[in-house]
Amino acid sequence: MSDRSDTGGFDASGIDEDAWTELERQLEATIPVYDKVNKIMTLGFDKGMRKHVRNHAKPGMNILEVGCGPGSFAVGLEGMDLTCLDPSAEMLKVCKRRVDEIRSQKGETPAKYVEAIAEDIPLSDNTFDRVFCLFSFRDFKDKKKGLSEIFRVLKPGGQLVICDAGKANWLHGLFGRIYMATFVQWVARIVTKDPNHPWKWLARTYTHYGTHSYYKQLMKDVGFEEVKARLLFPGMSSRFKARKPEL
Ligand SMILES: C[S@@+](CC[C@H](N)C(=O)[O-])C[C@H]1O[C@@H](n2cnc3c(N)ncnc32)[C@H](O)[C@@H]1O
Q: Which numbered atom of ligand 1 lies nearest the CA of 73?
């Protein structure tokens, strides 16, 4: 990849430490209105996208969500052993409150919470049936390292499912950048009432995000098979699937 210095620390393969630290600060600032802005900027389609990803898991499975944020996805997982991982203690605090409250109402045991980055997962090899990443893959510091760690903790035959802002190819990415630079910015500004709202940073990560073919190749390089990518209706988000080979 090109030298990241001319892009403020970002490229499709990852994010420099300084830029990532600031991005994390900005992500934490989204917490109070995270779900509200997401719902408006996706015209309510975020619910369907999360459901689509959730349908890849079955009751009884051992699940890891990498980059769980404030728990917007994890809160809907039922009847599964769940581990939520995020580098932000603030995100994990909100996630734990939300997720464990719902789990206790359903008579389920609390989930596990791990403060860590995808690139260095402090969990054992061959542990999970599914690993989910929703709107967090774009923020990994080192995408290949993160994918390798996810591969390691998946059981043989286990599956990774990623959902993130869509960039099917260069042309689709151009439309995406226009959407991020206009509609998303207006929504975030109106909801937060702050001209320096944190969604400016999300637009930046999207600008330097890679295409389907770029990440499909990265997943294959790490050892995944059955690697697939598609846009989810109405085309704002991408869904990647990849399987760790059986032994
Ligand atoms: C936009 S939130 C996504 C929240 C949630 N998964 C959802 O469904 O909306 C992105 C999350 O990714 C986390 N993150 C950023 N860099 C990460 C990394 N290198 N490894 C794991 N998580 C990371 C952030 O702390 C943040 O909580």
A: 8
Segment 34-46, tens digit of pLDDT: 999 999 999 999 9
23 lines ligand 1 (CB under 6 A): no
User: What's the pTM?
Assistant: 0.97
Alpha-carbon span 172 to 179, nearest angstrom = 11
Q: Is 69 in the pocket of ligand 1 (CB under 6 A)?
A: yes
Q: Closest ligand 1 atom, CA of 70?
A: 4
Domain harbouring 174, CATH code: 3.40.50.150
Residue with CA nearest ligand 1 atom 10: 136
Owning domain of residue 191: 4-243
Question: What percentage of the chain exceeds 70 in pLDDT?
Answer: 99
Residue with tokens 């320096």: 196
